[in-house]
Write a structure and sequence with these properties.
Elements: E1 2-7, H1 11-22, E2 27-30, E3 45-46, H2 57-79, E4 91-95, H3 98-113, E5 119-121, H4 123-129, E6 139-143, E7 147-148, H5 151-163, E8 168-171, E9 175-179, E10 187-191, E11 196-204, E12 224-234, E13 244-246, E14 251-254, E15 259-263, H6 277-290, E16 298-309, E17 316-319, E18 326-330, H7 336-352
Parallel strand pairs: 1-2, 1-11, 2-8, 4-13, 11-18
Antiparallel strand pairs: 3-7, 4-6, 5-6, 9-10, 10-11, 12-15, 12-16, 13-14, 14-15, 17-18
């Protein structure tokens, strides 16, 4: 029997498995399609400032903490032979017209009130920074501290490390149910082939699939799927831009080798992952308005993924109330890749009873915030 079963092998589950194993725990990872969920269909932006929404100050703090972990985490992966394409490239939040400029000016004021590292670029300065921007560009917010990672290289590399780690078992069966710790101190994960696997603890890193699990002993809010369509293009003349480019209707992430990711729609469509003509048309139009050179790029792939959204679109990280032995690491919505190192750090700390780092504060993200009782169940 292993120490911990992790349900889900996306960026969150894979990273957590490695952190747990390195902390001396034995791990079983269970996922029928490791690395092929929301993490594969992401764009890889590590952009806590550019992706900030009004009123999300607690989430901004958590995102920023995880962002600070990324350089060391990417270096650590690199030392193990895994190149995840980490770049400190910055972001530009671009105004297409006067209305966009007015909205971004309001957002800039919020950024400045929070003490974030941002500045306003007038139109000419924005186009000097990124010459491929449309001539009609009316200005931009410059965010120098944002960065990016190649999300597909990340999950592929993590899978390689997991496969070679002696303390981790990869189980490619589908999970049907999860039960908290019994009187004998054992958690049970039921698989869809009728067998059970047991461990001392369970980590739910099951993303948008969490709602499909039978969890009779767990008090968890519903994690809903939020569809996002994305486009993969290629510029054969090299990248169109250095920075992450974000408008009010889309983002454009340029890789150094000319690959480009354009995303993403936000659709409440259940578990539907159909790529639609309307979604493709919307994204291409929005991207063209920011960078007209998109028209000359090769359209390589269209895809859709399911973001895991909680009732307030913020993650659930911590012990699940109503049981002992189960930790939630779900509901990361649009920040799964960004939050993977800090989530793994927090979960591993809970399992090993380690003292949290001074900059880690996750009380606002406890799963118990959606239950009548505010007390989080301890892991006795």
């Amino acid at each position: 029997m292993v120490d911990v079963t992790i349900v889900g092998a996306g960026a969150i589950g894979l990273t957590t498995a490695l952190w747990c194993a390195d902390a001396g725990l034995t791990v079983r990872l269970v996922d029928p399609a490791p690395g092929r969920g929301a993490s594969w269909a992401a764009a890889g932006m590590l952009a806590p400032v550019a992706e900030m929404h009004y009123g999300e100050t607690a989430l901004l703090a958590l995102n920023s903490t995880s962002s600070r972990r990324w350089p060391a985490w990417a270096e650590r992966l690199g030392e193990q032979g895994i190149d995840v394409g980490y770049q400190r490239c910055g972001s530009l939040l671009v105004a297409r017209d006067a209305d966009d400029a007015a909205e971004l000016r309001r957002l800039l004021q919020t950024h400045e009130d929070l003490g974030l590292e941002v500045s306003w670029l007038r139109s000419r300065a924005a186009r000097r920074a990124e010459p491929a921007l449309a001539p009609s560009t009316r200005g931009a917010i410059r965010v120098p501290g944002d960065h990016q990672v190649d999300n597909r290289a990340l999950v592929t590399g993590l899978l390689e490390l997991v496969a070679g780690h002696g303390a981790i078992i990869m189980d490619r069966r589908r999970v049907a149910s999860v039960e908290g710790r019994s009187a004998a101190g054992i958690c049970t994960v039921g698989l869809d082939d009728g067998t059970d696997v047991q461990s001392r603890s369970v980590v739910l890193a099951s993303g948008a699939g969490t709602a499909a699990l039978h969890t009779p002993t767990l008090e968890l809010p519903t994690i809903r799927p939020v569809k996002g369509q994305l486009l993969h293009l290629r510029s054969h003349d090299g990248p169109l831009a250095v920075a992450n480019i974000r408008g009010l209707d889309c983002y454009i992430v340029n890789r150094p080798d000319g690959r480009i990711v354009v995303g993403a729609t936000v659709e409440e469509m259940g578990h539907d992952t159909t790529v639609t003509a309307g979604g493709v048309s919307h994204l291409l139009r929005a991207a063209w308005e920011l960078m007209p050179g998109i028209d000359e790029c090769e359209l390589v792939e269209t895809t859709a993924g399911l973001r895991p959204g909680s009732p307030d679109n913020a993650p659930l990280i911590g012990w699940v109330e109503g049981t002992t032995g189960v930790i939630a690491a779900v509901g990361h919505y649009r920040n799964g890749v960004l939050l993977s190192p800090i989530t793994a750090e927090i979960v591993t700390g809970l399992l090993t009873e380690a003292t949290p780092a001074a900059d880690v504060e996750v009380g606002a993200f406890s799963p118990s915030r959606f239950t009548p009782s505010s007390a989080t169940t301890a892991s006795a």
